[in-house]
Amino acid sequence: MVRIELVGVHLPPGPHPQLAERLVFDRGGINVVLGASASDGASCLDVIAGRVRPSRGRVLFDDCDVTRDGPVRRNVARAFAEPVVYPTLSVRANLELPLRRRRGWRQEASTRASDLADILGLQGALATRAGTLPAAERQLVALGRAFACADAAAILLDDPLAAVALPERPAARAAIVALAAEVRASVVWATGDVDDALTVAERVTVLAQGRVVQDGPPDDLLSAPATIELAAGIIDPPMNLLACAVQADGLRVGAARLDLPAIVAAARRVEGAGSLQLGVRADDLRIVAAPRATTLVAQLHAVEHRGAFRVASLRTDHLGLRVVCEVTQQLVPGYRYHVEIPAEAARLYADGVLVHG
Amino acid sequence: MAEGLGSHTGTARRVLALPGLLVVTALLAVALTGLLAPARIFVLPVPDGEVVPSPRAAFDSGWLAAFSLQAAYTLAVLAVELPLGLLVALSLPRRGVWAALSVAMVASPLLLPEPVFELVRTELAPRLVDAADSVLGGGLARSSVHADVSTWFGFFLVDVWRWTPLVILLCAFAVRRDGRLAHAARLDRLPAPQRVRYVHWPAAAGALGVATALRVADTFSAWPTSGRGVALATWVRTRVDEGPAASAALAVGVTLLVLLFVPMPVATDRQEGR
Questions:
Q1: Which stretches of chain B are DSSP H helices?
Q2: Tens digits of per-residue pLDDT, B56-72?
Q3: Which of A76, A125, A132 comes nearest B13 by C-beta?
């Protein structure tokens, strides 16, 4: 396994010439590149795999410059969004081929192919020609091929669940996590699917238009999204974003005054910013019985049932609020409720960028 | 672990491959040609340069010899054009200005006027054969008109030069569609022959099937006009009113196209697993 670093990489002419100023993928584990578009992550993998040679910048494997090396010397394996298999070969031959070409040991390759088939649920298809399988199973074969060589430097997965039907994705994710756990390679998984990123990643790098928007553990992405676009897009229900202003008496949200000194201090540090927004996740807000220093009064106007919980939609001073509630909580549409914003859950965004939280 | 994934595999059906369908189509076309040809067959003696078509009985002793000659010629053309087309297609540049330029250069023989090919056939090919003849010390047999080595060689040279670009273009577009598999094969460290076998050949098989059908139809389309082999048939084309024989050739072509369009979508759908 290697630590992969892309430094100042510029791509050949295209919509986003600069990939990112600096991108780092840790040794081992699953690093997810969450792109706003499919091309963001795919471009990144193309550069790592040596399929696309950057016009500027460097690709480093463990601080060793491999920018000019071809795909073979980099010792990487890859699965694509579309199932890429050798169509005329059997599933077993597909799974054996990468290992046999690298090591030449037929017995080891055969054993490894059987192990992979067990993990991926392909035991019954080992003798089947890969080209005749449905797309979802061909993709499993492609994933097996990518993970066949346990000692590859890196395994690159380019939106690998795109071809898998939604109901089968959790099982496929679990299979990939199991495969990743048993190899010694660094896994880089490019996707546009937030669920993939949040459920499998040990580290998430969010790319947008060739820029790293956020980089860190998935928990950070959930609790403190770096931009309001992420806050609105990756969490369900979306984070509440409330326009706010700092006045002499403290923080104002609509007509209400909130006692959030840390937010006020942060807002004063970015004085002059065009817009300030208070961000609070829906599951951090609480409906309480009595007013407090950090409560808003809001009128309930709809309740959405989500199985184990409910999402209450409220309005206060033309601002919408969504609150996650327990199914046992009494909620009456039209009533006014006190909604508490816990100080530790409050985030402040200035001009759309996280400045506190 | 991951139970339920890949559970249906027992139901995956082996399907008739697209190349197989196309070969069957080509054979059908050939058979049809053989059936249509006797409808109106001309004997085309060339005593002193004048062509005098005259009716004759179908399936006489010369018919089988002419058919065999025609089939051998077609096979020879295919044996050169298909591998050459695939190899050139694989070596064409894939990005940038050179990709477009190379396609334009490759396609150019398809646009050349007929007199250019006539010139090669009548002037260049005999001289090449003469040169080879002198090198071999007069070892090349030169007998009757339609068996004449230089005539056959001329047709062969022109056919390969003119129509290999078609095979190249068909293969080029087919193999370019599968750039990811080619990339994966490189990552798997497959040597070039295995990449051709496992990646490019399956990708180009459909295109090669189409090329085979078209080339067989093309070379055989001349055959019904004479029943005496491609060289003579093509040679006399511009000199005689082909009439019903040309209609027969046209019927073969149309039938072939219909046959091609019916199996192709079926085979493609099955291969996609839909």
A1: 18-36, 61-91, 96-111, 114-119, 125-135, 149-176, 179-187, 192-195, 201-221, 230-237, 244-261, 263-272
A2: 444 555 556 666 767 77
A3: A132
